[in-house]
């Protein structure tokens, strides 16, 4: 099982942070200790999860200039404390600097690279450049981000998969990835944590504790009026949605968390 996960793409805004946070929550759901490290000169994701019990004391945001120091710390924790370490690398030159550092000094560690990307022709050349720069296909996993799963609005990721009818070439064939290409769908439930400054797994606590029937019975006992009961059940519905999404993500990324 991999212990250090590097989530990167030299293009910003492709879902690196959302993907990293989702993977951290899968680790927590599976009972694994983890640490989240953000290497970015402009963002500080730790502030957005200030009320989270799942991420409490497990998040660090540092400037790229301190990447080497933090990566050495992460490697040591992964080995000595049996932690899973997830490293969210900022876009732009940050990515190339970190990749160079990893290739030069961390190649012997149990690391894998995760490259999220969206369905845009502009991103395909960028994806190929990042993939080529890493130059280690056995340790690279690609992630289709924001895949639409409903039959009515299915998104085939034609700029990655190709579309003969439209004359669009297949970047998948050109890259020829050795590992599974994951798909992650970030739905509207992602909006809830933005309001509460908690993670989806925090918000899923009610659904993990009670079935819907148990929740109805419990809230019927504790609520003092219909309005309060309705609000509690609405809260449960949000929790249920978050839990369903985390379970779906966990199933999709099961291969990464295989202990073999």
Rounded mean pLDDT score = 85
Number of helices: 11
Numbering strands along the chain, what is their spatial order in the largest sheet? 3-2-4-1-5-6-7
Structural class: alpha/beta
The quaternary structure here is: single chain
Helical percentage: 40-55%
**Main pleated-sheet profile:** 7 strands, parallel
Briefly say what this structure is.
The protein is an alpha/beta fold and 260 residues long. It has helices spanning 16-29, 67-80, 93-105, 121-134, 158-161, 171-175, 191-196, 200-203, 205-209, 212-222, 226-252; strands at residues 4-7, 34-39, 59-62, 84-89, 111-117, 140-145, 182-184.
Structure description:
The chain is α/β, with parallel strands linked by helices and 260 residues long. The chain has eleven helices and seven strands. It has helices at 16-29, 67-80, 93-105, 121-134, 158-161, 171-175, 191-196, 200-203, 205-209, 212-222, 226-252; strands at 4-7, 34-39, 59-62, 84-89, 111-117, 140-145, 182-184. Strands 3-2-4-1-5-6-7 form a seven-stranded parallel sheet, with helices on both faces.
């Amino acid at each position: 099982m991999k212990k250090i996960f590097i989530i990167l793409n030299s293009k910003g805004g492709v879902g690196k942070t959302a993907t990293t946070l989702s993977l951290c929550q899968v680790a927590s759901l599976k009972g694994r200790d983890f640490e989240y490290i953000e290497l970015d000169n402009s963002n500080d994701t730790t502030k957005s999860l200030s009320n989270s019990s799942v991420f409490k004391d497990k998040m660090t945001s540092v400037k790229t200039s301190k990447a080497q120091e933090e990566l050495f710390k992460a490697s040591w924790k992964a080995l000595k404390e049996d932690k899973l370490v997830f490293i969210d690398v900022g876009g732009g030159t940050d990515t190339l600097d970190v990749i160079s550092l990893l290739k030069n000094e961390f190649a012997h560690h149990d690391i894998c690279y995760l490259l999220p990307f969206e369905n845009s022709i502009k991103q395909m050349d960028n994806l190929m450049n990042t993939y080529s720069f890493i130059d280690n296909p056995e340790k690279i996993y690609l992630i289709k981000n924001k895949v639409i799963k409903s039959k009515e609005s299915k998104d085939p990721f034609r700029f990655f998969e190709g579309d003969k009818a439209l004359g669009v070439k297949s970047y998948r064939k050109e890259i020829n990835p050795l590992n599974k290409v994951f798909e992650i769908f970030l739905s509207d439930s992602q909006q809830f944590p933005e309001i509460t400054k908690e993670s989806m797994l925090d918000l899923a606590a009610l659904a993990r504790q009670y079935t819907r029937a148990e929740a109805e019975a419990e809230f019927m006992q504790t609520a003092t009026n219909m309005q309060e009961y309705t609000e509690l059940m609405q809260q449960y519905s949000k929790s249920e949605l978050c839990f369903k999404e985390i379970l779906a993500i966990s199933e999709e990324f099961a291969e990464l968390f295989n202990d073999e």
